[in-house]
Specification:
two-stranded antiparallel ribbon, 93 residues, little secondary structure, 1 helix
Length: 93
């Protein structure tokens, strides 16, 4: 069964909060063609060891995603929701 295929050009796949004191939170990242997407302010894939994003590990083993724009590109909405669906995980709202 194919899921999450009809999300493009839908309002729910993009949100931008330019009034946020942290906007944009990753100043050195290109967030894709649709602009900087704040929908996944905290990446729901952070806990996955192989999330598909650009990250490094800091001393002590903590994940550093400061150079990653994967959740902030509108075109990655389907990728993120599909990954959550496949793992059985759901974001905590």
């Amino acid at each position: 069964m194919e899921v999450f295929t009809d999300w493009r050009d839908r309002d729910y796949s993009f949100f931008q909060h330019t009034g946020c004191e942290y906007f944009p939170c990753h100043r050195d990242c290109e967030a894709g063609t649709g602009g900087f997407n704040c929908l996944f302010c905290f990446c729901p894939l952070y806990a996955q060891e192989d999330c598909g994003g650009t990250f490094t590990y800091l001393d002590g083993g903590r994940k550093d995603c400061s150079l990653c724009a994967l959740p902030h590109a509108k075109e990655n909405y389907g990728y993120i929701t599909q990954r959550l669906h496949n793992t059985g995980a759901s974001p905590v709202l």
